[in-house]
Amino acid sequence: MTYTTPPTYTAPSPTGPAGIPSAPAPAAPSFLQRIRRFPATFGLIAVTVLVFIAQLLSKALVGSDIVLYYGAKINESLAAGEAWRLVTPVFLHAGLLHIGVNMYSLWALGPAVERFFGRARFLVVYLLSGISGVLLSLAMSPNPSVGASGAIFGLLGALAAFLYLHRATFGQLGAMQLRQLVFVALINLGMGLTPGIDNWGHVGGLVAGVALAWFLGPRFSTTVLPDGRPRLVDSRTKQKISVRMGLATVAAIILSILAMMNAKGT
User: Fold this and answer.
1) 120: exposed, middle or buried (C-beta count within 10 Å: 0-12, 13-18, 19+)?
2) Measuring CA to CA, which residue among 33, 44, 9 is closest to residue 23?
3) In angstroms, rounded to a whole number, what is the distance separating the alpha carbons of residues 35 and 127?
4) Which among 132, 137, 166, 202 is annotated as catalytic?
């Protein structure tokens, strides 16, 4: 697979051979251009916002958040076989500030991961990281929880792992951004020690994101086009990527079954 990095992207650019100038960077893309360029990221934001609107309507119409009640991560419900609660908490939020912070984080991180990983791998990383966060929370915390934080920590971990694996490709700027991502992860994990925050979900998502970036993320090498722009060539073919995404999904299903069986036995 080949990938040509547009000069409008603000993430670290691959380093070409010495003496070859980089193409000049035009103006930053508009909001509508970003939506068209990163449909998976903004699709997830749209779905999450629509679910939150459904939560607000539920409160206004019947006086309680039925959507949250039937979708939150609740250990007893998962032990009883309500497997959808492994996924639905990723799209639910406890308030306006909660969804605002998470959707801003998705808006900031999502395009970088989607650009390098592609739509399919991006969605797999997001969803499997979110499920992994729920699974670790199920194993380690008795408290109910909701939120996209585990999935977003997965994106953070995947991007950090990607930059580490391609540190020779992206040079000093990539190394600087990797340090920034590690710092952000540590700060947020530290803040997650505050009572009322499900930090196990964060840890589960982060570890899953790193593992998925290693297992199915891109492996780029760099060539340079005649106009000076770098081209990233992914050594993993579409067939290999599809197989690895399938294996990761099967592994998540097996872990989910084991976790629910363990919750039922405790």
Assistant:
1) middle
2) 9
3) 20
4) 202
Q: What is the pLDDT of residue 228?
A: 80
DSSP letter for each residue of 141-194? --S-B--SHHHHHHHHHHHHHHHHHTHHHHHHHHHHHHHHHHHHHHHHHHHTTS
Nearest to 16, CA basis, from 230, 246, 260: 230
**Active-site residue among 105, 149, 166, 256?**
149
Residue stretches of the chain with pLDDT short of 70: 1-27, 266
CA atoms within 13 A on the CB side of 6: 13
In the annotation, is 202 catalytic? yes
Q: For this structure, is 242 an active site residue?
A: no
Domains by residue range for the chain, with CATH: 29-265 (1.20.1540.10)
pLDDT value, residue 8: 31
**pLDDT for position 266:** 66
- The 8-class DSSP code of residue 266 comes to -
Q: Residue 245 is which amino acid? A: M
* Cα dist from 84 to 41, 52, 72, 192, 266, whole Å: 22, 17, 9, 25, 20
